[in-house]
Amino acid sequence: MAENQSEEHARQFEEKIFDEIEKLEHSPQRWQRIEIPRVEGEFRRILVGVYQIFYEIEGEHIAIHAIVDGRRRPPLFHPD
User: What angle do CA 48, 64, 57 make, to 5 degrees?
Assistant: First the structure.
């Protein structure tokens, strides 16, 4: 049951990230986005409030590489 809750929380988090990215991508006052070329794809950075989200688009999916709270270090989430 805990695993199902974990998957549900992950799905909800992913939906929120997609919603925020979509809102900011289409907003005339969108936040700064930095694109860093990579061999496998490209990292992008988007600011949502005080959070910096480093992500990569892989087809229809998004891979979150790090979430950094601008008020603290280290990253809140980093898969490596």
Answer: 100
The answer for residues whose C-beta is within 8 angstroms of residue 63's C-beta and 6 or more apart is: 55, 56, 57
- For the stretch 32-56, pLDDT in tens is 444 444 435 567 777 777 777 787 7
Strand order in the sheet with 61-69: 34-37, 42-48, 51-58, 61-69
Strand (E) or helix (H) holding 51: strand 51-58
Cβ pair 50, 58 in contact under 8 A = no
Prediction pTM value: 0.40
